[in-house]
Hints:
27% strand; alpha+beta
Amino acid sequence: xxxxxxxxxxxxxxxxxxxxxxxxxxxxxxxxxxxxxxxxxxxxxxxxxxxxxxxxxxxxxxxxxxxxxxxxxxxxxxxxxxxxxxxxxxxxxxxxxxxxxxxxxxxxxxxxxxxxxxxxxxxxxxxxxxxxxxxxxxxxxxxxxxxxxxxxxxxxxxxxxxxxxxxxxxxxxxxxxxxxxxxxxxxxxxxxxxxxxxxxxxxxxxxxxxxxxxxxxxxxxxxxxxxxxxxxxxxxxxxxxxxxxxxxxxxxxxxxxxxxxxxxxxxxxxxxxxxxxxxxxxxxxxxxxxxxxxxxxxxxxxxxxxxxxxxxx
Length: 313
């Protein structure tokens, strides 16, 4: 008589646990958890080669796109979207940051010193004032400034002025510590987008101050800035910005030692956007017309490209 083997008990099956992370769509990699109500991952996201961090504050998005230290002598350039804010910080109170800006869509349009000054009845820039292009449109607006005076008259330094003030500073002897100047830095950065020497115009020298006497003689005013002073520049269209952290051409110092500065780019908050009561729009009658021209141009470009309105998150 055959004895049947006892039946094996079925193994119990554990229920599958749900993982708390989700897979990125189409990417094959897991994504980080998303902060509630933010709509975006809270982890840092590198953008354009710089460091970035995404912050969620009170249920709304505030994005710092990059934060970088610009060492003494260094150049920098970036294409800014409409609504982004560039902040430049002078940690020591002794910096000079020379700047140029262009319409990124059509760089034939660029910052115009004469229109910027005569339209706003000024010889310097500070909060509430704007940087006009040669087409009468607003490239950038100064919406924050703890320095109070930024030079528009002196232009940028070059190799000959550096040689006269600081003596020889060639790469052959100093290697990476060679004496850089604003003009050469501008040429290097402009060449990255197909521009060159002929596209250099009168620049703005942030954190620097000069004065002119009755005879038209311009002289350097020391001590204009202060430690941790900053300037906030809001981009009013797609703007290509070039910076050079190099000595001012009229600075009386005989030592080549430009200090490091901090730069960051972020999206504007709702309260920082150019509404009808915006300080920069209202500070001068001509500025209202400049903003109207700029906004009409932006709408036209958006309709041609079909990208829709470009706005801060």
